[in-house]
Write a structure and sequence with these properties.
The structure is a homodimer.
Chain A lengths: L2 E2 L6 H19 L5 H13 L5 H10 L6 H13 L3 E4 L4 E4 L9 E6 L5 E5 L3 H10 L3 E12 L1 H9 L1
Parallel strand pairs in A: 4-6
Antiparallel strand pairs in A: 1-5, 2-3, 4-5
The first copy, chain A, binds a DNA duplex through helix 4.
Chain lengths: 160, 160
DNA sequence: ATCGAAGCGTTATATTATATCAAGTCATCC
DNA sequence: GGATGACTTGATATAATATAACGCTTCGAT
């Protein structure tokens, strides 16, 4: 399982890799990574956490972008539709994709204490897809979000 | 896989079984299935679909219950906390539990055409839990929601 | 009967997200 | 190089979902 989220790491690399991957995909597919879309992705990569749409909007408007909700929702729609970001349903929040470029069904591990979110790959989907197919249901996308305690918060909790 | 949602069935049985299960669990655990909570569960069982909180609230207020949001959210919180109903994150909607009494990690199959929701059992969780544990993450609850096309809508689609 | 916890009524507000329409931008075709 | 059409953005308004807070009531235990 490749997992991103709880290890220490050189974060500037994440941002660079993420932006590069998005640029490449957009170039290859004729998608327009416009100023606002690019900036939202940068913010998500830099912050490296699940962010509410209005958190992002606040940052954008501080930087001179328009301050209406559609500004950020449009950018997020684009990023999510093209796999550069994901929505965390449980938190109504958005996070940069940790495996950009790969086609994948992500699994999110969400810490209920600190709300840190890690993205991992699913060890399971084909089984579920086959089981669903048996009753005639055709799965197109799957959301998997596991809530619990991250390593860091488990330590803190037991220490208290 | 036991699946509930796409088959034809005698629906009054569902309601009776669901209410009975909730009553039994409440009696066993000292929980109070008050008038409002009971009525919300009945509504969810009768409608047999994912309903928005405000849809339910509308029905309640038509019946003489108070018409403020907390009325329904409190009842839903109780029902969800005790396993009598589930929240469908993808739809911001609530649905009666199809396997009342069993402890289970549900998997929902959501039709993107008609929004019908079926609840099935997960063929997978232990694998995910073990994988998460290897990186120190302790999973407590898991949300699995698969979106796609139900048998009925697939037929209609190909017919068109 | 009284006490404390749980539940409910009510007002107000917070949070998240979308509809709509006009104006701007960009690539392409002629 | 101007017309065209698809896509993108600006801006206003509103919809949809959910919670905070406070006081009163109800219930069950002592």
């Amino acid at each position: 399982m490749q997992t991103v989220g709880f290890e220490n790491h050189d974060h500037t690399v994440c941002v660079g890799v993420g932006m590069k991957a998005a640029e490449d995909v957009c170039a290859a597919q004729g998608l327009r990574l416009t100023k606002g879309r690019r900036r939202v992705l940068e913010i998500l990569l830099q912050e490296h956490r699940a962010m509410g749409a209005y958190d992002i909007l606040g940052m954008l408007s501080d930087e001179g972008f328009a301050s209406q909700p559609p500004v950020v929702y449009r950018a997020l729609d684009f990023l999510v539709a093209n796999g550069f970001a994901h929505k965390i349903q449980k938190l109504n929040a958005y996070i940069a994709c940790a495996h950009p470029g790969d086609s994948h069904t992500p699994v999110f591990l969400i810490c209920r204490a600190c709300e840190t979110v890690a993205e991992t790959a699913a060890p399971l989907q084909s089984t579920l897809g086959e089981a669903a197919e048996k009753i005639g249901f055709k799965i197109e996308t799957t959301i998997v979000e596991a809530e619990g305690m991250c390593p860091r918060c488990r330590e803190t909790e037991t220490a208290v």
